[in-house]
C-alpha cells in the first residue's frame, strides 16, 4: 500500500521537527561531601595600539535636495581623494553614514490669550504656524583606519584642508588581538585558582575539581578623541597645525567565571 505524497510529507516534517529538538543542557552534579564555589576573575594584557579608527565627513546645506547632495558629493570626492593621497588604502576607507534631511522653520507657538492694541481693541490670538521646509542638509561620512599612527595628525590636517567639516575620533585598537587575549586568559585562570585556594583555606577545605569555566571578553582602550566641526553648510575654519596624537596603551582582557568543587 502506497501512502499519498501529502501524508508522507507530513510524517517527514514531524520526524524532522522531533530530530531538531535541542539537547537538554547538562545539569551540574555535586557529589556528597563537595561544596560548590563560584569565582569570577579578570585578566588583562596591555599592548601598544597599531591601528587608529576615526570618522571624517562633510555636511552641506542647500535649498533643494538635489543641490545639497550634489555639493556634498563633490566635497566628499575631494575628501576621499585626499585620504588616498595621504597613503590610506582603499580597503581602509568605508562609508558609514549617508543621509539627507529636510530643514524646517521654527514653528510660531500659539498665543495663550487675546491681546489689545494701543487703542484698546481686542486682537485675537494668531493661529499656530506649522513648520515648513526651507532647505535640505546632506551628510556623508567615512570610517577610516590609519595604520601608521605617527601620521595621524597630518592625515586629519589634510582632510580638513580638503573640505571635511566633521572629524570624530580616533579610537585605538590592536589589529591582531588573540595573542594578547590568550595572555589575559592565562592570567584570569591563575587569579581564579588563587582566589579559590584562598576561600578554601578560610573555610577549612581544599580545592577539588573544576566543574565549569565561562568566559566573557573585554576591551579596555585608553581613549583620546579629536573632534573638528565646521559651520553647517560651509567649510571648516582653517585648521591649526596638527597636534601630536598620543596612542598610549590599550588593555585587552577577559572575565572568567569558574566553578570549583571544594572538598575536605
From TrEMBL:
Keywords: Signal. Gene3D superfamilies: Protein of unknown function (DUF541), domain 1, Protein of unknown function (DUF541), domain 2. Transmembrane segments: none annotated. InterPro entries: 26kDa_periplasmic_antigen (IPR052022), SIMPL/DUF541 (IPR007497). It comes from the Bacteria. Residues 97-117 are annotated as: Disordered. Residues 1-20 form the signal peptide. The keyword Signal applies. It holds the Pfam family SIMPL. PANTHER family: PERIPLASMIC IMMUNOGENIC PROTEIN, SLR1258 PROTEIN. This is SIMPL domain-containing protein. It comes from Phenylobacterium terrae.
Amino acid at each position: 500500500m502506497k501512502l499519498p505524497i501529502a501524508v508522507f510529507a507530513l510524517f517527514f516534517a514531524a520526524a524532522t521537527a522531533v530530530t531538531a529538538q535541542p539537547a537538554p543542557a547538562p545539569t551540574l552534579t555535586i557529589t556528597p561531601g563537595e561544596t560548590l564555589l563560584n569565582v569570577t576573575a579578570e585578566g588583562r594584557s596591555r599592548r601598544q595600539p597599531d591601528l587608529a579608527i576615526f570618522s571624517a565627513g562633510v555636511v552641506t546645506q542647500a535649498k533643494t535636495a538635489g543641490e545639497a547632495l550634489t555639493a556634498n558629493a563633490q566635497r566628499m570626492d575631494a575628501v576621499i581623494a585626499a585620504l588616498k593621497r595621504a597613503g590610506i588604502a582603499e580597503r581602509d576607507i568605508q562609508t558609514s553614514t549617508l543621509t539627507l534631511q529636510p530643514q524646517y522653520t521654527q514653528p510660531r507657538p500659539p498665543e495663550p490669550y487675546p491681546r489689545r492694541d494701543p487703542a484698546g481693541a481686542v486682537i485675537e490670538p494668531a493661529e499656530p504656524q506649522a513648520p515648513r521646509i526651507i532647505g535640505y542638509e546632506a551628510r556623508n561620512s567615512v570610517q577610516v583606519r590609519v595604520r601608521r599612527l605617527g601620521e595621524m595628525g597630518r592625515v586629519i590636517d589634510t582632510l580638513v584642508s580638503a573640505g571635511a567639516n566633521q572629524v570624530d575620533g580616533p579610537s585605538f585598537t590592536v589589529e591582531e588581538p588573540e595573542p594578547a587575549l590568550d595572555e589575559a586568559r592565562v592570567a584570569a585562570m591563575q587569579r581564579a585558582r588563587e582566589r579559590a585556594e584562598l576561600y578554601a583555606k578560610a573555610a577549612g577545605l581544599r580545592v577539588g575539581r573544576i566543574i565549569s569555566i565561562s568566559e566573557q571578553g573585554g576591551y579596555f582602550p585608553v581613549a583620546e578623541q579629536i573632534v573638528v566641526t565646521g559651520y553647517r553648510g560651509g567649510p571648516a575654519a582653517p585648521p591649526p597645525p596638527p597636534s601630536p596624537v598620543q596612542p598610549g596603551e590599550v588593555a585587552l582582557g577577559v572575565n572568567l567565571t569558574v566553578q570549583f568543587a571544594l572538598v575536605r
